[in-house]
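User: Fold both of these, please.

Assistant: Here is the first one.
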Amino acid sequence: MRSPVPQEVSDELRRVVERWRQLPLDHALSRMPLTSALVQRLADRVAGLRGRPAQPVPYLGPATVMDQLTVMVYDLFATQQDAEVGDVVGELSGIRHRL
């Protein structure tokens, strides 16, 4: 089965994940609020698209936040195939540049 995530988004997500894995723990911890906020925005968007109330994404720490981000990006494109690719790439790129 083919992923619903467009290649451009997938490529940028991979860059973010690779960069995150290179961060020292103290630096990753300092970037958690920024990264968790993006995960929450995506989760809220997906919930709205599915007609469900927004729920807080659990804080599971720096070891799992990239998994959470990956799942939310997948869920967004699985729910809304015509989601704006440029906007998502821009958000991911913005995170990567702040890491």
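And the second sequence with its predicted structure:
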Amino acid sequence: GYGYGPLFQGLREAWRVGDAVYGRAVLAEALGASADSYGLHPALLDSALHVLSFDPVAGADLGEVADAPLLLPFEWSEVSLAATGA
């Protein structure tokens, strides 16, 4: 039941390698002008985190996530930005 606006729908691909799930997220063009104001744009981070909805252990196909529980990280610690300007 979560709805995301178009600026937060940047996850373009997701794929599995063994038990790991990877994703490719892009920042919406409309947010490009504000991207330099952030080390990592919040909308891009949010889009990248959508890959958490794909449970690598359950064994379901990546397209079968409608009934999967939604994981929402709410606390971060020991996080650092390794590079900027990507």
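Helices lie at 42-49.
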